[in-house]
Amino acid sequence: MHTRLGHDRELLAIRDGSDGQAVVVACPPHPQAGGDRTDSRLRAVCEALPDSVDCLRFDYGPWDGGAGEQTDVRTALSWGQREYDRVGLFGFSFGAAVVLAAMADPTPATEPAAVSVLAPATGSVGARVLTGLDSLTCPVQVVYGERDDTADWSPVVDRARQRDHTVEAFPGDHFFVGQRTRVGDCVAEFLAGRLVDTA
């Protein structure tokens, strides 16, 4: 199902599923490097989610150096919180960075129920990534490739370990070639386990 989000920065999105108990908002990698809602890592996570969890994959609005993209994350999160009781946030690479940066000033009303970031790259959003990670009180998962020489993931991984968040390492590169299904399963299991009431 295609949908449009936002006003000032209209976002194009695809929602996989429509009657789940919860939703995962999936944030793509760098738009100037071809990142969009069809990214294979985003699709791997969405495909691995159980039927009880829908997935919203969106494209950022016009390039804004990271600031507008953080607004886009908050817009998609707000949409999810209007439509569902529980929302998880997921981002890959640049998407991971803007997910964390967008949470640098969370409030109880806007914080998601869970966050997972894959191959977090600080890039243009810089210190706000760690500030956002420090601000989150919900369960957080950081997944990285041990041979990733594209993203500067070590500061996020180190901080996540200091804060006793879940950290998962894969013996792969930034793009997780040949491991996307396993990575998708890992992220989906973490998020679904914190979004779905199994009682």
Topology:
Blueprint: E1 2-5, E2 11-16, E3 22-27, H1 40-48, E4 53-58, H2 67-83, E5 86-92, H3 94-102, E6 114-118, H4 128-135, E7 140-145, H5 154-162, E8 166-170, H6 180-195
Parallel strand pairs: 3-4, 3-5, 5-6, 6-7, 7-8
Antiparallel strand pairs: 1-2, 2-4
Name of the level-1 CATH class: Alpha Beta
Q: What gross morphology would you assign?
A: globular
Number of helices: 6
The CATH superfamily appears as: Alpha/Beta hydrolase fold, catalytic domain
The span between the termini is 30 Å
Beta-strand content: 15-25%
Number of strands: 8
Reported for the largest beta sheet, the result is:
8 strands, mixed
List its salient traits.
199 residues, alpha/beta, Rossmann fold, eight-stranded mixed β-sheet, 8 strands
Molecular structure report:
There is one protein chain. With 199 residues, the protein is of the alpha/beta class. The chain has a single domain (2-195), classed as Alpha/Beta hydrolase fold, catalytic domain (Rossmann fold). Helices cover 34% and strands 23% of the residues. It has six helices and eight strands. The chain has helices spanning 40-48, 67-83, 94-102, 128-135, 154-162, 180-195, and strands spanning 2-5, 11-16, 22-27, 53-58, 86-92, 114-118, 140-145, 166-170. An eight-stranded mixed sheet has the order 1-2-4-3-5-6-7-8, with helices on both faces. Helix 2 (67-83) packs across helix 3 and helix 3 (94-102) packs across helix 4 (128-135). 49% of the residues are buried. The mean pLDDT is 94.
